Amino acid sequence: MRTFTSLVATTALLCGSVTLTAGQAVALADTGEHAEARAAAACVTVVKWSSEKSSRYVTVKNSCSTKKCFSVTIALRKDPKFAIGGKKQQKFRYGGTLGNKGTGIKNVGC
Is residue 8 situated within a structural domain? Predict the structure, then answer.
């Protein structure tokens, strides 16, 4: 009886360690994806927010050599998406002056 109990305990311990290892592998994969997103976030930065006539604009700079896509975060509205070429600074119109101001940018897939 003790041998059977010991065998069950050992099996449970091994299954638990295999599950833990698999969970750690998934966590490492997620960390790699987040690192890529952080690297892309470092490429596109806001230079300034502005309003001209009846429009709101955001000026952004892409310091990377490849095209990047981003969206402007606006409260209570769907975030508009934009793309900027490599090594460029560009102004984008994201809404009218009656709408909410943008609060930041998020990197999105192109």
Answer: no
Tell me the pTM: 0.62
Please check whether residue 4 lies inside any domain of the structure: no
The Cβ of residue 87 has, within 10 Å, a number of other Cβ atoms equal to 12
**Residue range 58-64: average pLDDT?**
97
DSSP for 69-106 reads EEEEEETTSPPPEEEE-TTEEEEEEEEETTSPPEEEEE
Q: What percent of the chain has pLDDT over 90?
A: 57
Count of domains in the chain?
1
Residue 64 lies in domain: 44-108
CA distance 21 to 76: 42
